[in-house]
Queue: 2 jobs
Job 1
Amino acid sequence: MVMEGEGESEQSHNVVLFPFMAQGHMIPVLDIARMLADHGLAVTLVTTPLNAVWIRPILDRAASSSCRVRVLDIEFPCAEVGLPEGCESMDLLPSNDLKINFLRATELLQEPFEKLIRQEVENPLCIISDMFLGWTVETAKVLGIPRIVFHGTSCFSCCCSSCIHEKKPHINVGSDTEPFMLPGLPHDIRLTRAQLAEFSKGNSELMAAGFSRVLEEMRRANAHSYGSIVNSFEELESEYVNHYRNVVGMKAWPIGPVSLCNRDQIDKAERGKKASVDESACLRWLDSQKPESVVYVCFGSLCRLAPQQLTDIGLGLEASGLPFIWVLRGDREQVDQWLPEGFEERVKGRGMVIKGWAPQILILSHPATGGFVTHCGWNSTLEGLTAGLPMVAWPLNAEQPMNAKLVVDVLKVAVPIVFDTQGVVPKEAVEQAVSEMMGNGEMRGRARELGEMARRAVEEGGSSYMNLTLFIQDMIAYKKARTMDTAPVCDSPPPCTSSE
Ligand code: UDP
């Protein structure tokens, strides 16, 4: 494809992608890499050696369909920051206390990253990098190209976060459980302090551990980026796409749902990691179930639930009488200890327990799957919406409570989970939420409509397809203006002062 008046083929434009090293961040960026390559661009993806090992086969498979994505390795300085050797992905951290070390290691990549791009990528068009790699705004500046931030979440939650940061509505409530309203948003959105991500609340231990500086620098860098690529679609959250653009002031291109670029069964089955279950056995089992009858339960790649909570989930699913697939993270032995006594025997034929990694989008897109119990990580939430499924919203941390608000209160396609005063969900509440999700026809109808809209958005002529085209045009126009010396320079964030 040659752009009008450009005279240069898009293959001569090289986009640099740098995802954050966590499954929930890398998986959508791999999809974005393939989408950009499908639009005819040359794409360079930078990642650490151990991540490159599982990423290369995925991108090589796509290469046969004319897509060109090159993977460049960058060494990850585990030893320098006290991380165990080989800890190159957030989900491999042996304890949460090491998160700050992980973030410090990513900061040390600034110099080698710049060197690598200078050596290996001729005339790059732009850098698309994760919000956790805020310092890439400086790299982009010295290279004279735009830095595009990928937050990995919805415009809705970006708007909520910006509102909390700017207006601090959580400061004046009397307790962690008293709801406060987020002023200035298109809907009446209420959260509690207990639901806020630790860093918004100002948890003193985390702050003392240096999170405060790292997060503040990230926020500033992201605010000084040229724009933002979003894994969402305009029709899903149009008021928040507009709010993000016009009130928060970020140039934004919603180009999703990016998971829909996985059309072949193997791509669906091996998205992220190789599944811990034989996918054809899983599909055969689903084929044997009635349409829209199976409940799929999965809490993403990072969350760990307490053993008692897992027992309650198991007993709640058993009591519901519904067929289900339940994904439990951890190795086989651990998982067997967590399961209620005699559980697998009792639910044999009706319930499938996957111990490890599930082929999630393969399961979600199967006609027998009828509902999704999710922790509301954005990828999972959007994948559930894309499959046209009603959900049980069970947020645990980070921006998940905001995503839960979107699906429960704004889109009205999810049942909120009810925690008891100890922060636990008893088996009765699990059973009730699952039964309500499966039995609510109106909710299912709305979810189905959103699923159809999602598919239309990525088709040729759809809003996400158009946004991707506009994004590429914008980047090419920027490059052209730069060669004529008229491009706006990405400004650096001001230095962080200790008083903030
Ligand atoms: N995922 C998967 N199989 C699993 C668990 C997760 O394929 O067993 C994928 C899921 O489809 C999603 C991503 O991993 O794309 C998880 O991202 P999300 O934002 O939902 O949650 P996080 O793991 O970041 O908390």
Job 2
Amino acid sequence: MVNKVAPDYEESELGVGDSTLVRAMCETFGRSEATIKQSLANGEAKDLGEVALLSRVAQKMLMMPPKLTIEKVFADMKALATASGKDSQKAKKERIQKMMVASRGAEAKYIVRMLQAKLRIGIQIPTLLQALAYAFVLTVPSQKGSSGVPDRRRGQGKFSAGDLEARMVSMEGAVKQAFCEQPNFDMVIAALMQGRDGSNLHEACHISLGIPVKPMLAKPSKGLGEVGERLSGKRFTGEWKYDGERAQVHVISRDKIFIYSRNSENMTEKYPDAIEAVKESLSEDVESCIIDAEMVAWDQEKKVILPFQALSTRGRKNIKIEDIKVNVCLFAFDCMLCNGVPLVKETLEARREKLWKMMKPIEGKVTFAVYRNFDDELKEEEVQEFLDESIAGSCEGLMLKTLTENATYEPSKRSLNWLKLKKDYIDGLGDSLDVVPIGAFYGKGRRTGAYGAFLLAVWDPENEEYQTVCKAGTGFSDEDLVTHYKFFESHKLEKPEANYNVTDKMKPDVWLEACQVWEIKAADLSISPVHTSAMGVKADGKGIGLRFPRFLRIRDDKQPEACGMLSCSQSASCLSLAASN
Ligand code: ATP
């Protein structure tokens, strides 16, 4: 249901392009590419999944292979994800053909959609975790019956209504926490199958070495006033907010160190130099640990931080230390585990003490985030002064974090106990926003031959659709425009996806797959009759649009569905800004 065959930190991309898929469909169903395209163009089928279904139903077969089982399909999908080498595309095509030949009823449709990673069942991970929790409360495993098969009884009969509800709430919390700390369905479900519940699931599924935790995130703040409101009366610390890439470092042993991104992707091969530096900086008594940090591009000669763009020029795979052109420095700011002991429930003050003992700084390679602690009585001038220092130090602003009260590490939460205070918020320009290009307009003049502007959208998790926020044509260098044009050559759509909510006035020349995230900056928000985001929130029948949007960069570390106007950090700043307009 999550349309993945493995957790994010393992090889989980199926790597099946539409061309392989179409070729497999042609051979399986005896159709030509032209008739498949025609079915899509004339509206007979909404997507390739429906083409597969219609083709399968129309096909007469003398002999049917054995029925597909979930186990077999899952194994085949896993094999697709791990296939590599010279003949792998051919082997993948044959495997797909076998699955399609054996499919019955609607199976071909879902197999094709799975292969395209567009299952369209409208289920997100939180919903699935909730469903899992309820399922395990409502069916209670008892001792194995005489046949050896567990006898599952319905929970409702066993508990009173109030008791049942309490169990569901406790189980849901436990399952969600377990998945935050150990984002691996195999492990969480295995622990549930053992009969664990809200009271003891945590004993089996907790933060562990080699399994990246979903990182703790911060809430945006609009300025010193808001910081004061939220943090006054609490002991808190300010840290420089470095503009790089989140890096979760797992030291399993001195010779086994891994680095994961904000999205739990394995970045170990990208940063062999940082791994060496961590190894060198670890204190002798540290055998294993998990450290939260920011990886920042660093100029070795001038001893200064370089902009984020410098970091993005580094390759990702198989990087050799001798070939590295852009150096990095790791700024550590938290730790979640040390020598087998989880630290997430400790206060930030205690965790930071431990972090400082775990490693020694090495100039220009590994160090700790610059910080300043503030007493419970907030003095705005002091915070302002520290903010100015951070900007002079090439940082984006400050992260303000509670030190003792409500100061545990909250995996995957966008917590009020961490506030980001960026220079831009204070300038009144607003934070940058993450959006998804879903359409493109052909360029004119100098831009002829490429796209001149793009239709940008945000994801609304409630309505499960992409809603437009602006059309953007500035901020792109000539090189950017060529890069985007080439990238989208293989991500064009014949027609908009069913979940694109676009008004007639905004129809682009070319529809694009929602497969990339862009960071943009806008001057302002306005009520818009042509855009569909937050439709009706501020004015009947009108949405919220962005004024003067400007492209900043591609964000490889974020998924399109994390760009929710209403769900993520940007929504808070956007909607409150919108409200104040
Ligand atoms: P988010 O990660 O909150 O979704 P985002 O990706 O747009 O938002 P920002 O708003 O720029 O990122 O800020 C949060 C990020 O700042 C963190 O995810 C982390 O990568 C980075 N960061 C830099 N310095 C620190 C620090 N001292 N403490 C925590 N995070 C820091």
